[in-house]
Amino acid sequence: MSSLNHCIKFELDVKDENIVFKDYFYKSIKLQKHKIYEAELLQPACPFCGSLALLHNGHLITNIHYPTANASLPVIIRLAKQRVKCRACERWSMAQSESVNKYCSISNASKLKVLSALTEDRSMTSIARENNISINTVQRVLGNCSHRFIDSYEYLPAHLAFDEFKGVDRQLNCICLDGDSHQVVQILRTRYKKTLLKYFGRFSP
Q1: Which of 133, 105, 104 is nearest to 117 (CA)?
Q2: 3-state secondary structure of 27
Q3: How does pLDDT run across 82-108, given as a tens digit for each residue?
Q4: CA angle 44-49-51, nearest 5°?
Q5: β 75-86/184-188 pair status
Q6: Digit-coded pLDDT (tens) for 142-194
Q7: End-to-end CA gap in the chain
Q8: Which of 25, 63, 88, 138 might form a disulfide with 51, Cβ 3.0–4.6 angstroms?
């Protein structure tokens, strides 16, 4: 591993061994200065059969938005994903990384930063501006987590724990946890008795 690649990975906290950084520079995009990192995403083996006999056929260039401490200087990783054909099973594939989802240009590190910001009493506009992404992207990140809190009235843990916290507009919400695993069971918009009875009344004895 080259010293440049090692230093950039340390700076950006990128742990994927298949990503190799080659260069970095500044570029003006839509009248705003950006820091660009050029990198290649390698495909070491066939994801279908595991064969190492690969025929390389160019790259797909994707601009990945990456989190930065300085919101006025956005960071973009210009990632060249290898396209390969397996000589063994003759199937085509493209290199993929845990740092970014397939068909996505927002890094998973950026999504985690957005999720962390969503737990604070802040607007989506300020979160989007801080991370140099659109408000729609912030809403999609929040929507992708909403399935964890879909109401299910078939099961409740044996032990429940309750607490209240300040949510949007400093309104007190109620959170219900599994007393053993500390996993979130449900978050209710209010802490009033009427709301609690309405929710827990839907479960059978």
Answers
A1: 133
A2: strand
A3: 999 999 999 999 999 999 998 899 999
A4: 45
A5: unpaired
A6: 777 755 555 666 778 889 998 887 766 677 888 888 888 888 788 887 888 88
A7: 61
A8: 88
Residue type, 48: F
Domain ranges of the chain: 3-105, 151-200
Closest CA to 43 of 6, 17, 75: 17
Lowest mean pLDDT among 28-37, 64-73, 186-195: 186-195
Name the E strands within 42-144: 54-66, 75-86, 92-94
Report yes or no: 187 and 175 within 8 Å, Cβ to Cβ: yes
Q: What is the pTM of this model?
A: 0.72
Kindly calculate the radius of gyration of the chain based on its CA atoms and give it in whole angstroms: 23
Burial of 5 (0-12, 13-18, 19+ CB in 10 A): middle
- Six token digits for residue 184: 């979130």
Q: Distance between CA 77 and CA 107 in Å, rounded?
A: 9
Helix (H, G, I), strand (E, B) or coil at 21: strand
Backbone angles phi, psi at 36, to 5 degrees: -110, 130
Q: Which of 46, 2, 43, 42 is nearest to 23 (CA)?
A: 2
Token readout for 108 is: 């998973």
CA angle 120, 101, 134 (to 5 degrees): 45
Share of the chain above pLDDT 90, in %: 52
